[in-house]
Write a structure and sequence with these properties.
4 domains; about 25% strand; eight-stranded mixed sheet; single chain
């Protein structure tokens, strides 16, 4: 306090207290940013979580890998999710939080691939490599014809029951052709009879030698040992000889996989009497559209979020006879915030408690929107989120947009950053709403309510093209498909059957399977029909004891179609409460009943009639989500697939490279997302790890933890043995030196470690960046972030310093090898007989010798710069005078004092006065301060002399 501030009147001693020890306001703790695959969650955008339980709720549990099973339906559980383990290690070892960026496939819009070569990598997604026209690949459907009475000269219903994807080969049915009695033959497009058990026989042929590599009888009974998903390969990864030893496969799995099967849809058709359970025909046909492309097996497209169809309004006119769902007003649709395919298999959306307005002053009605588990039934509703008393009034606090939210992030390729769109903050963890513009502008009829919904899109036309060897019978004529269509409506297809040596025309109406809709309020043995949700039903069949069965093909019914088929798709159905017919204690959905004058709203003369009757619930599925990943890869972002001829691929010729680059671009702005560590565990591609370093250097507030090539090659990369996957330290160092890295904003470790997946109870090999994050978190929690995250006290992996159990290393280092690594700035992870496994180094990749060649100092500087920046930002646009300078000093000095007290600094000095901020700088609106720091160094070398003296010597001398 200046002497001028005292008031001197009479003699005396004047005392004052000046407190310069106050600390600046604390700010949220900053943690790492991790990029990698997860089970589900938002894609290619940073999401911050504070705990591992919150992480699991948002992104799912870690996947330990090598799980196998029905990969087509259950998803990829073969490839470990290293990024999730890194997040788990950090959150369980330290102070949190973690920001995660989930990877899904995204191709560059300027990619160099052409549309006719599925072997190229520039486009996201997947495709079979076979050529459909040549009979060496593509997608083939099993089609069941309703009645197996031959010869057939009348129209029959036919249903798609399954789809095979041929990587390089053919699939045929084998048995007796329709009308030929005991004659046995094989082929594609022939109309075949079932065997004596009501089953069919199919055979897989290799693409090169036309050799039968797998032949089996099959059925669509999921409890049978011959169930179609039990006797055919359902893992697309087995066709990939780059990562699977196909020579060890026994049943031709390298040539094909079985994709969608619609067993429950077929069983329902049997229950409804539309198809015979055993006496029916079958044929296999190729799937495509007129012209041959795109085929069903060409899914080269970017990831997409699942969505409902549009929810549309009720009919408020008095002329029911002119009613059509096509003429109703679209109000909104629901889009999953969880990108990709997961949401459509796990969630569905219901509208319930529809209420018309009872006020003349406010004509807007209300409704509830419920996010439900896809596996539930209307008998036992299991909801995960509920939004009540919503309306379509943009001026209301209960407006659907305001309550649920509509914001989303989209990557701007030109600016290489994420841009936010939408008006309303997201309050739902699972969904956002897309509102029709007229609704959002308040320009629609205020009495409108969501009264119906448009169902999933299905193919309107799919041409069945001839492929493979035609079936030849006794008179050398061919039994084959001539022309056909697949669609929502019945569409004719002509085949030829055999009748006593004379071929006769046969017409079948082939239908694409679709999501079941509720017909009656009592379906599923529902006790109270007014509890029924009309529209989509994921629980479709009722057993003899009245229990409800979940449709096991639900996810297959909702899969995305090739982008090129969009123009050929049509809604499977449109369900509206306007088409409900009420009877004695029940209601029935009958499409067209309002126009026919028989529905409740037609008979009652107002839309309120059906609501007054108590039927005010309906359900929509989410559909069309797509991961955009190559499902033939165990690790869709494997390093060996991101190079061509030894040269790293670019974002223009490799979608995996583009995806990770986009993730890095989206977090490169320090004002957009905060983090102090950056890791993409398992990625060793030099182009991408260099970009990680560049991002951290440009931001100057984060340390990149990179993984090196030539350390260990995981099983997801090739087919080598475990012994051949390990690289010795000398080779690792030699490869690293060719890169010429010199940065204090990056660090790396050797070797890979074995960790225990405590959730899935298994061991797996993980890249060292996983445990490096855990060790840094544990070190910060136990002491401070400026203490070295290494050594037995803070780097003891066996002792749990990484947050997850570490049980082994791929390579046990000798003392000389540790020296080799440390000299090259690679931090060794050593295994000692007594002390266990320990991180035994803390160097950055800076070659120049300075304090910043150590991790603890670099992290200290990142922390100090970030906090001083926060202090400084609070002074922006204040007067550039000494009072403001003192405010800066009074915050920075105590802050640095606290670090010094906690052993982060040995000494510091802050200068901000006329010598730094000169009058010339004041005129330029600049405040300039200097901060001098002496970081505390860690002890890495201990030298002790042991002096052995003569017996007569005195220690006092």
């Amino acid at each position: 306090m200046s002497v001028k501030k005292f008031k001197f009147v009479s003699p005396g001693v004047f005392l004052s207290e000046v407190d310069n020890s106050q600390l600046p306001d604390t700010h949220p703790v900053v943690g790492p940013l991790v990029i990698g695959r997860t089970q589900f969650g938002p894609a290619l955008k940073p999401v911050t979580v504070q705990s591992f339980s919150e992480f699991v709720e948002t992104f799912g549990n870690p996947i330990g890998g090598q799980a196998g099973g029905d990969v087509w339906r259950t998803g990829n559980r073969q490839g470990p999710t290293y990024g999730v383990f890194a997040a788990q290690a950090y959150l369980r070892a330290g102070v949190g939080p973690v920001t995660m960026v989930r990877l899904l496939g995204k191709g560059n819009p300027n990619n160099t691939d052409t549309n006719d070569d599925p072997s190229q990598k520039g486009q996201a997604g997947w495709a079979t490599t076979g050529d459909i026209a040549g009979g060496d690949g593509g997608s083939y459907a099993l089609v069941l014809v309703a009645s197996g009475t031959a010869p057939i000269a009348t129209a029959q219903n036919a249903y798609v029951a399954a789809i095979w994807y041929m990587e390089d080969g053919q699939i045929e049915l084998s048995g007796a052709l329709a009308g030929l009695g005991p004659t046995t033959t094989t082929g594609t497009y022939g109309l075949f009879e079932p065997d004596s058990n009501g089953e069919f026989v199919a055979q897989i042929k290799s693409g090169t030698s036309d050799t039968i590599v797998h032949k089996t009888a099959f059925n669509l009974n999921s409890s049978s040992r011959k169930f179609i998903r039990q006797v055919f390969n359902t893992n697309p990864q087995l066709v990939n000889s780059d990562v699977v030893d196909t020579s060890s496969l026994k049943n031709g799995e390298q040539y094909y996989w079985l994709g969608e099967t619609f067993e429950d849809n077929i069983l329902k058709q049997q229950d409804d009497g539309n198809i015979d359970a055993t006496n029916r025909f079958a044929m296999i046909v190729a799937l495509g559209v007129p012209g041959g492309v795109p085929v069903r097996s060409d899914m080269r497209e970017d990831y997409a979020s699942a969505t409902t169809g549009w929810f549309f309004s009720q009919d408020v006119s008095t002329n029911a006879s002119s009613y059509s769902t096509n003429n109703m007003t679209n109000l909104f649709q629901i889009i999953a915030r969880d990108a990709g395919e997961n949401a459509q298999t796990t969630l569905k959306i219901s509208i319930e408690n529809l209420k018309a307005s009872t006020s003349l002053d406010n004509q807007y009605g209300s409704f509830d929107l419920v996010v439900r588990r896809a596996t539930d039934s209307d008998n036992v509703v299991r909801w995960v989120e509920r939004f009540t008393n919503l309306n379509l009034n943009p001026a209301s606090e209960q407006y659907i947009g305001l309550v649920i939210g509509d914001k989303y992030l989209e990557y701007d390729e030109t600016q290489q950053r994420l841009r936010e769109y939408g008006q309303y903050n997201n309050n739902s963890k699972y969904i956002r709403v897309n509102i029709a513009e007229d609704v959002d502008n308040g320009q629609t009829n205020p009495v409108f309510l969501p009264f119906g919904v448009i169902g999933p899109q299905i193919p309107a036309t799919v041409t069945m093209e001839q492929s493979g060897t035609a079936v030849t019978v006794a008179d050398s004529k061919t039994s084959m498909i001539v022309s056909s269509s697949l669609g929502a409506n019945e569409r004719s297809s002509t085949t030829y059957g055999y009748d006593g040596g004379v071929y006769v025309s046969h017409t079948a109406s082939i239908q694409w399977p679709q999501v079941t809709v509720r017909i009656s309020g009592s379906d599923g043995a529902l006790a109270n029909t007014k509890d029924a949700y009309f529209g989509a039903q994921s629980a479709t069949r009722v057993s003899s004891n009245g229990s409800i069965s979940y449709d096991r093909g639900w996810g297959d019914l909702l899969r995305a179609f090739p982008a090129g088929m969009v123009g050929t798709l049509t809604p499977a159905w449109k369900v509206s409460l306007d088409d409900l017919v009420t009877g004695s204690n029940n209601a029935y959905w009958q499409s067209g009943s309002r126009a026919a004058g028989t529905s409740a709203t037609a008979v009652g003369g107002t839309y309120e009639s059906i609501l007054d009757a108590g039927y005010d619930n309906f359900t929509s599925p989410l559909y069309g989500g797509f991961d955009g990943l190559n499902i033939k890869e165990i690790e869709p972002f494997r390093n060996s697939a991101m190079t061509t001829g030894g040269t790293p691929d670019t974002e223009f010729n490799n979608y995996a490279v583009n995806t990770i680059q986009q993730a890095l671009h989206s977090v490169s702005d320090p004002e957009a997302v905060e983090f102090n560590l950056l890791a993409v565990p398992g990625i060793t591609n030099t182009k991408l790890t260099q970009q990680m370093i560049d991002v951290c250097e440009d931001r100057a507030d984060a340390l990149a933890v990179i993984d090196l090539s030539d350390v260990y090659t995981p099983f997801t990369e090739n087919t080598e043995s475990f012994k051949d996957r390990i690289t010795v330290p000398n080779t690792t160092v030699a490869t690293l030196r060719t890169r010429g890295l010199n940065s204090s904003y990056a660090c790396t470790y050797y070797p890979w470690v074995q960790i225990r997946d405590t959730i899935n109870s298994r061991l797996l090999w993980a890249p060292p960046s996983v445990i490096a994050l855990g060790v840094m978190a544990g070190s910060e929690a136990a002491s401070k972030l400026w203490f070295a995250p290494a050594g037995f006290n803070r780097g003891g992996l066996t002792e749990g310093s990484a947050g997850i159990p570490v049980t082994g290393v791929t390579y046990k280092l000798t003392s000389k090898e540790r020296d080799t690594l440390y000299t090259a700035n690679v931090n060794p992870i050593a295994s000692f007989p007594s002390e266990g496994i320990v991180v035994f180094g803390q160097k950055t990749l800076q070659v120049t010798r300075s304090a910043l060649d150590r991790i603890n100092v670099r992290r200290l500087m990142i922390y100090i710069k970030k906090e001083v920046s926060r202090i400084s930002s609070g002074l922006l646009f204040d007067q550039n005078v000494s009072v403001t300078w003192n405010r800066f000093l009074n915050q920075v000095n105590p802050f640095l004092n606290s670090i010094q007290s906690d052993l982060g600094l040995t000494e510091f000095r802050v200068i901000l006065d006329e010598t730094t901020t000169t009058p010339d700088l004041v005129d330029q609106n600049i405040m300039y301060a200097k901060i001098f720091l002496k970081p505390a160094r860690s002890i890495e070398f201990i030298a002790v002399d042991f002096v052995i003296t003569r017996s007569g010597a005195s220690f006092d001398d």
